[in-house]
Amino acid sequence: MERIELENVLPSVFAGRENIVSDVWRKKLSFAKGKSYLIEAASGTGKSSLCSFIYGYRKDYEGIISFDSTDIRNLSGDDWTGVRQRNIGMMFQELRLFPELTAAENVTLKNNLTYFRAEKQIKEWFSMLGIEDKWNEPVGQMSFGQQQRVAFIRMLCQPSDFLFMDEPVSHLDDANSKIMGDILSAEMRERGVGIIVTSIGRRLNMDYDVEIKL
Amino acid sequence: MLWKLLRQHISVAQLAGFFIANLCGMVIVMLGIQFYNDVSPVFTQEDSFIKKDYIVVTKKVSTLGSIAGKSGTFSDYEVDDLKSQPFTVGVGAFQPSQFKVSAGISFGGMDISTAMFLESVPDGFVDVKADAWRYTDGQSEIPIIIPRNYLNLYNFGFARSRNLPQLSEGMVGLVSLNLYIAGNGKRDMKKGRIVGFSNRLNTILVPESFMNSANATYGGNREWEPSRLIIEVDNPADERIARYFNDNGYETEDSKLDAGKMTWFLKVAVGVVMAVGLVISLLSFYILLLSIYLLLQKNTDKLENLILIGYGTSRVAMPYQILTVAINLAVLVLSVIIMVIVRGVYTDALSGIITGTDDVSIVQSCIFGVILFVLVSVYNIIAIRKKIGSIL
Fold first, then answer.
1. Percent of chain B with pLDDT over 70
2. How far apart (Å, rounded) are the C-alpha atoms in residues B52 and B40?
3. Closest CA to B119 of B239, B204, B7
4. How confident is the model at residue A192 (pLDDT cuts 50, 70, 90)?
5. Nearest CA in chain B to A159
6. Binary contact (A57, B392; C-beta < 8 A)
7. Which of A102, A173, B66, B352 is deepest in the core (most CB within 10 A)?
8. In this structure, what are the phi and psi dihedrals at residue A165, rounded to the nearest 5 degrees?
9. Distance, CA of A88 to CA of A110 (rounded, Å)
10. Mind listing the pLDDT tens digit for each residue in B45-94?
């Protein structure tokens, strides 16, 4: 997948509003592989909606979203499974981890779909982000900031064309934010992924090619 | 790991409830079939050489008729009318012998001999193996079917009073009967061999081909009208039969309907039992489905998250499908075991009545169990798949 394109997209709940000032809604916008994007937004401007539209679990929007000029409304259930396994890595704002599983199991559950990362690499990320001692701890007993780091590592455990992060550092300090930025920059360099990050205040610390106001 | 996640909220009590309910249903259904297969031969085996759904009719013998010299035979018109009735499958006439016959048995130097009569019915109504029930001209031995009462009369009456050995049915088959036939100025001795005993036909039956040729030779081949008819019906419990006979002044010996009625009642009873079993199976299946739906409902968040991190619907559905199929399979296996045990118990209890259950296999009931298992499992698999597919 080389491009994600949005054309005249608007969440259905916004329909009828005339005074929308946005770089995304009702515009033509394109995310290209190999570039990094920051989407800055105030609360209630539809940031999480945008993520759910692109990731295919909500369809209440007008306009057209397409992957390489294929309208995503035409994708079947199996197509979406493929997209979520190989094309788009998503870090959800609400994380969607399994609290009863340990941090390691949460990551392995994802990695077992494609066996994309070696365990050594995963452990290295755990120690880089300072949660190596949480390896065998159930996620439910971890703080939200720690959980964000687990979700971040889980996102990396698949082949991706794009990495999509919805407020990834809302509960993290600048040091961890910087480490995440470094890991993402390396991913861009080595694998040429496209990176899309949303933020309502705290930014994930890296150099963005494009900054967009939602 | 997927299983660790998905097995949460599984209610052992609900699954146990389903297990027991389905087990009851399955056992009842399978046992019903098996019981029918085991027991139904009891009602048919004794006269296995006579087709089971048949009735013998005669005309009422009245005092007035006897004095007036009425023949009491059936005319062609009456036979044709009977043939055209909706309950009739086939009609055969009893052909009486038109010659004198006496039968004797030589036994330990004693000659027991008695005047007899012979009758025949069309071969289609006699269900003896073809070569045992065949007569060609010049054949020295004539196959005979006699009423079982005759044997009892001998065994419990005659043999007792004369201190003669009692005879089993098998032994009688080995002894040959001397038949002295006379008529039309001729006289002959033939050998008769008893090939079967009948509880239901009070006559001495010989093959029709023998009767035809003997009547021609010794009886002058006179025209005759049958005084008894044998009728094959599709359902002996059909009330139209009784009404028709009543209207026409025909008589049947009621007990002869009994075997047919008994098998009919057995069929109905087993049918009812099986229907109950099926309903229980259906209800238990419904419990399972509800239980699984509830489980899916409780795990909706997990299932949704799994699908969102890239697990396909079929992969998420599989653990639940395997679970239900495994339970169904366990039910099937246990049902077969219980059925075999229960069957052992009732065959012991009925061993005096039932003979030859060894010949009846349990394959038929097992096949039915497997069919039930496959149907339930396939529907479960589809239902789970659909339910999970509807989550996202």
1. 85
2. 11
3. B204
4. very high
5. B310
6. yes
7. A102
8. -125, 125
9. 13
10. 544 555 556 778 888 776 666 666 666 788 888 888 888 888 888 888 88
Q: Which DSSP state fits B244?
A: H
Residues sharing a CB contact under 8 Å with residue B335, sequence separation 6 or more, in sequence order: B23, B26, B27, B30, B369
Decide if A147 touches B, using CB distance below 8 A: no
Query: Least CB-CB distance to B308: which of A78, A84, A109?
Result: A84
Cα dihedral across residues B363, B367, B369, B370: positive or negative: positive
List beta partners, residue B147.
B198
H-helix or E-strand spanning residue A149: helix A144-156
- A99 or B33, which is more confident: A99
Q: Model pTM?
A: 0.64
- pLDDT, tens digit, 9 for 90 and up, residues A48-98: 899 999 999 899 999 999 999 899 999 988 899 999 999 999 999 999 999
Distance CA B315, CA B312 (A): 5
Q: What is the three-class DSSP state of B92?
A: strand
**CB within 8 Å: B308 and A78:** no
Using the predicted structure, report yes or no on whether residue B290 has a pLDDT greater than 70.
yes
**CB contact A108 to B (< 8 Å):** yes
Q: Please report which confidence band the pLDDT of residue A122 belongs to, taking 50, 70 and 90 as the band edges.
A: very high
For residues B370 and B333, is the Cβ–Cβ distance under 8 A? no
Q: Which residues of B290-311 are buried (b: 16+ CB within 10 A; e: fewer)?
A: ebbeebbeebeebbebbbbbbb
- Distance separating alpha carbons of residues B62 and A203, to the nearest angstrom: 116
Q: How far apart are CA B86 and CA A134, in angstroms?
A: 86
Q: How many Å apart are CA A89 and CA A69, to the nearest integer? A: 20
Is residue A158 within 8 Å of residue A108, measured between CB atoms?
no
Rounded distance, CA B300 to CA A89, Å? Answer: 22
Whether the CB-CB separation of B183 and B98 falls below 8 Å is answered with yes
- Cα distances from B243 to residues A123, B44, B57, B87, B265, in angstroms, run 92, 26, 13, 12, 20
Q: Are B105 and B175 in contact (CB under 8 A)?
A: yes
Nearest-by-Cβ selection for B1 from A77, A84, A108: A108
Q: What percent of chain B stands above pLDDT 90?
A: 8
pLDDT in tens, B95-125: 888 888 888 876 666 677 788 888 888 887 7
Q: CB neighbours of B32 closer than 8 A, spacing ≥ 6?
A: B270, B273, B274, B277
B357: which DSSP letter? G
Place of tokens 């941090």: A103
How far is residue A1 from each of residues A33, A73, A163, B38, measured CA to CA in Å? 8, 16, 12, 68
- Predicted-complex ipTM score: 0.92
Residue B46, pLDDT score: 47
What pLDDT, on a 0 to 100 scale, did the predictor assign at position B295? 84
Q: How does residue B130 score in pLDDT terms, banded at 50, 70 and 90?
A: low
- For chain B, say whether A75 makes contact (Cβ under 8 Å): no
List the structure tokens of A57.
Answer: 């679990």
Say if the Cβ atoms of A81 and B312 lie within 8 Å.
yes
The token pair that represents B271 in the structure block: 């049918």
Dist. CA B227–CA B206, nearest whole Å: 17
